């Protein structure tokens, strides 16, 4: 009797081979039970001074970009309809760019909904391209402000009469009248455009940071999810 009780005492710990994970727990509690606390993770999960989760912020960014892209597509089509075939190449290039951006935003929404980090990659590439283009535009505007600009205007005045037509035919024999006008308002316009471009670049850099943090967050969750599933499977097997 003592030998049987001793064997039972030795075999009793073998029933609890793996850590038990309650299937009713949420993801955060499961991560804590597996030894991985998301609050202490190396990936920052919150933005705006900790007021908003990066996943929710990425959803808001995608919604704002979706409204902007749809507005730009509609306005470009309206402009093309008013000008007919005068700017076919430019309109085609603009529409192609916005359609690609729209696809990237849709993939962003699907990736956030399905928690698939790799669907966020096209949006990250799009934002990198926008940031580079905005930086080049800022540099170009700075060069214009420092180096100065000039505007050339050619104006011909003639009288709508036989005498005026005769003067038009003789005007080619005389040198043109040159008039230099300093447009002081042009410098102010360039400075305003520079401020707008810098603000746009700052917003895009923040958008890029948030979406990148969201990608890292989803990627880390996708790596840790199999560990939770394995822990749950081991728990069920140990109970059997």
Please summarize what this structure is.
The chain is built from 7 helices and 2 strands; from the N terminus they run ααββααααα. With 240 residues, the chain is mainly α.
Write the layout of secondary structure elements.
Layout: H1 2-11, H2 27-33, E1 46-47, E2 52-53, H3 54-83, H4 88-114, H5 121-147, H6 162-170, H7 184-239
Antiparallel strand pairs: 1-2
Helix pairs in contact: 3-4, 3-7, 4-5, 5-7
Give structural notes.
By secondary structure, the protein is mostly helical. It has a domain at 44-143 and 191-239. Helices cover 69% and strands 2% of the residues. It contains seven helices and two strands; from the N terminus they run ααββααααα. The protein has helices at 2-11, 27-33, 54-83, 88-114, 121-147, 162-170, 184-239; strands at 46-47, 52-53. A two-stranded antiparallel sheet has the order 1-2. A hairpin with a 4-residue loop joins β1 (46-47) and β2. α3 (54-83) runs antiparallel to α4. The longest helix has 56 residues, at 184-239. The chain is elongated, with a radius of gyration of 33 Å.
Keywords:
mainly alpha, two-stranded antiparallel ribbon, 7 helices
Shape: elongated
Oligomer state equals single chain
Which secondary-structure class do the elements indicate? mainly alpha
Number of helices: 7
Low-confidence stretches: 5-21, 28-42
Instruction: Classify the beta-strand content into a percent band.
Output: under 5%
Largest sheet: 2 strands, antiparallel
Q: How helix-rich are the residues, as a percent range?
A: 55-70%
Q: Strand order of the main beta sheet, please?
A: 1-2
- Rg, please? 33 Å
User: How far from one another are the termini?
Assistant: 26 Å
Give, in order, the helices and strands: HHEEHHHHH
């Amino acid at each position: 009797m003592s030998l049987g009780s001793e064997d039972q005492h030795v075999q009793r710990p073998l029933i609890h081979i793996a850590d038990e994970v309650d299937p009713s727990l949420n993801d955060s509690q499961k991560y804590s039970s597996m030894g991985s606390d998301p609050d202490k993770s190396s990936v920052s999960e919150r933005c705006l001074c900790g007021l908003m989760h990066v996943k929710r912020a990425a959803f808001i960014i995608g919604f704002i970009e979706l409204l902007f892209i749809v507005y730009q597509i509609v306005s470009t089509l309206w402009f093309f309809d008013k000008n007919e075939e005068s700017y076919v190449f430019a309109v085609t290039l603009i529409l192609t760019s916005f359609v690609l951006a729209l696809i990237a935003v849709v993939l962003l929404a699907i990736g956030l909904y399905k928690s698939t980090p790799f669907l966020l990659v096209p949006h990250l590439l799009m934002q990198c391209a926008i940031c580079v283009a905005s930086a080049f535009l800022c540099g170009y505007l700075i060069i214009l402000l420092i180096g100065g600009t000039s505007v050339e205007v050619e104006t011909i005045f003639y009288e709508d009469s036989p005498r005026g037509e005769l003067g038009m035919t003789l005007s080619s024999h005389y040198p043109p009248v040159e008039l230099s006008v300093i447009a002081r308002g042009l410098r102010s316009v360039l400075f305003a455009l520079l401020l707008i471009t810098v603000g746009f670049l700052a917003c895009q850099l923040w958008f890029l940071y948030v979406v990148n943090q969201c990608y890292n967050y989803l990627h880390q969750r996708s790596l840790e999810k199999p560990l939770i599933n394995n822990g749950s499977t081991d728990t069920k097997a140990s109970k059997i």
